[in-house]
Amino acid sequence: MSRRALRALLLLAGASVLLAVWAFPILWGLLTSLKTERDVLAYPPKLIFEPTLANYREVLFGSASILPNLWSSLVVTGITTILTMLLAVPAAYALARLDLPGKRSGGFYVLATQMLPPVGLIIPYFLVLQRVGWLDTYQGMIAIYLTFSLPFAIWLMVSYLEDVPREMEEAALLDRAGRIRTLLYVILPQVRGGIAVTTIFVFLNAWNEFLFAVVLGGNRVRTVNVAMFNFISVEQTLWARLAAAAMIAMAPVIILGLLAQRHIVKGLTVGAVKGGGRR
Amino acid sequence: MTRDFDDRATRCRAINRRQLLQHAAAFGAGALAAPAIVGNALAQQAGIGSYQQAKINWRQAAGEQITVAVIPASYFDNLISLAPDFEALTGVSVRFEKVPPGQIRQKAMLDLTSKTATYATHAADPMYYPLYVSNKWVEPLDRFVADTTLTDNAWFNYEDVLRAWRDANSVEGKLYGMPYDGEVTVQVYRKDVYDAKGLKPADTLDQFVENAKAVHDPNNRLWAVALRGFAGAGQNMYIYPSLFRSFGGNWFEGGKIRVNSAAAVSALDWYVDVQSRFAPAAVRNWNWPDIADAFSQGTLGVYIDAHSSAAVLNNPEKSKVIGKIGYARWPKGPNGKRVTSIWNWGFPINAALSDKAKRATWLFITWAASAETQARTSWRFAGPAKRSGVNRTSLWRSPDFVGLMRASGSNFVEAALESLEQDTDVDWRPRVPQWPAVGETMATAIQSALVGQKKSKDALDEAQTRIDQIMRG
Amino acid sequence: MARSSDRPTRERRERRFALVLFLPAFLVLAIGTTVPLFYLLWASLWRIDLSMPWLSGFAGLENYAKMAADPRFWNSLGLTVIYTGSTVVFQVVIGLGLALLVLRIPRGQAALRIAAIMPIVLAPVVVGMFWRTLVLPPDYGLLDLVTQALGLGSHNWLGDPQLALVSVITIHTWQWTPFSFLVILASLAALPPDVFEAARIDRANAWRRFIHITLPMIRPAIAIIVIMRMMVALSAFAAIFAATGGGPGTATEILNLYAYRTSFTDLNLGYGAALAVVLLAITLLVSFLMFRLRRAA
Prior knowledge:
A: mainly alpha; MetI-like fold; B: alpha/beta; disordered N terminus
């Protein structure tokens, strides 16, 4: 009995370390964001201090507010997500269920486009957007974001659509419901969960993107990641404010992540077994 | 850095109140515009008044729209906050685009190569003019200075703009970018620590090492020295050129860039030695803000960097060393020279602009570089961040500026001004069109020596090979 | 089943319908990835150096020939191999270990899953910045706080060439191990319990049970993790960019970083494109091999 207790204790200890390793850097950031700059630079680092919300006030409403950047991120990410889903679901359905000519190579093609390293694509993207005057515009950024969101979304959706029992579809078709109506009213409700997971993943990927945003964006379209990165390269580094900005930028993805916790695990697994994701 | 953007009322009031004194001192009585009544309209007029003494037609390019790329820094923010006055004066509308320093060069260059003329002008790095000029991407400014319909030199006084910076922005004697704000590198030391040990700020690099030995006490969290260690053409390749030149290095030998000469190796050895013996280990990744942070926490004895970093050291929100700071010029190197940076942000004119847009841009440039705007963004600025990098000799010598700078610490103005007048060296860095690649190659090589990845000689030899390749094309 | 008379038309209609559904996405991908890819290949054959535009012109394979004699290229290639290999191995090994551990914890799995999701959903660039500014700086960072408390002293995690490489590998491993952990945990949980029961009756010891029963059953999941994580590691950019920028010196300059710096700092787009093509070739080769291996297994 005592051996078992010891084992349980060890397991628990192991699990706690694990928890700490993953959660602690983020909690440390939270602490830092509540410190004054002077406390941040104190040595040895202070664990007990008088918390302040001044950094958040400054980051949100001060002269270097990140609100416009949050807006940029939201617009780019939101529209990208919507367009991606509108294109990906029908394509995935065609790949998963219909007699699409050249289906295998089509599927492989989608998978292959996902492997292209972004660093390789950034040069052509830059030159083309520059030529058409789409640098630092929402349309330019969204167009580029579609290219990396789509393959991923299609593959994830294919894996969900393949799980829908064929009989349902056939029954609906025998009822002489048209293809489109079958898709809309029979198939899609079956994969509601999959659509939700895919939407979340597409949103996360787009929200977290950095390389394209930093090269193709600018003053008008500057996502929150880029704005934050700029925090460390200007005049002087304000650590506490950087931490506060990071906390704000992380908030949406963490909230989404927690809300969809179970689905994300499932999404990762489904994706892992059937296709893949590019992060 | 806290910035004061839109508190227009306060700003205008402050300007008005001070203007009486300022104008009397610097520009003669003619500029005296509105007296005590405070109101927006009048304040606006006051913002224009002194410029209208210039005998040019400020409105000749009215209706033009120009975009100006600057970096997000308080010295440009001050200018941006005055821009409505410029628009009222000229009828030209200005849009500012803030691009981080790490990207402004690339963004400007990509704009210039594509000839899309997105940026009428931008805050330009002096090292980039050779490249700009060899591609005819920017206009020579001498003809704008000489054109009396565009420049009333009795008012603008071009020769008053600091010579070192004009030289830095010139190629073959022609100016291509008008200096707006700049800096010199000086020694910044802990006067209290030095005084307690009976030390004087180093006059030579050898003394610098001696001082470091005396001050160094890492067990009590006082490291003697920190110099920029971070890689980058504007980071470690900002400190190294001064060492290189004062060790007697020449960037060119027989018309070719030479970076692995004996002097170059000794200079790098010195840099590596000082950093590894007397600096905190983290210095290898430090750029100047990190160094200033450390100094402001009282953990550094001395550093050599831009005089403008004094603002951080005197920020009461953070600093623990206010009142304990002293300044001195760069120490002399083995060849007896002190070499300071000639860094400045200048404004060129994009050659792809239409003629009228060029004129509008020039009007903006003269407005920004004029003594009046320079003063209004410095000691007459209402916000807390008053510029210390003004571009004119007369301003550096004006009692108001000196009074403002005094507060930064002992000997600040003297050290900075003497550096500016005596220690600048136009061949501080190799001025070639290929600078972007050359600068980065050097920066990478220097850092690999600083972190002990390679020996100085090997790092520089490798850089030489690469640079030969770059230059050969 | 449909009557034979209208089968051809029905089939045709279905095909047409399928095409209509698939084509929009296909066109976006073709224009958005394949055309740029050819552009990239083409650009890699040119000399496009924005700092020396007068030298621009067709260069054939010159950019590729130049790589052979470019020590920075070989350095970055070596680092790419080290970085990819070590991060993938660590992710799988640690993730597997943790999953086996956690599987035995009767309660609190949910909390662990939540903790595990945190790093995954964060932007790599934010993670890189986080580690650089909060975890790794000497004296002030979280890690130094721990090592100093343990009497291991202060280290310059990002300033020392070897430590910097270790640090960027650690950052990647920290962020993505939860991924493999979650996937392995899910596949372990899905295994039929009776297999274990049978083995337990056989008195097979824990290690042998693991080697002979558990591992073969989760091998497909591991294979997928390896493939996916390799692809991701090969295109890793933002975290290293934010944490070290490829430095100190070139100590963490993987091929991605080198291609980026060449293109956007040195503004040598032609050579940058050639470097990107090499990266692309490596990625395709690796994925081809991995898929072959997987099929063979």
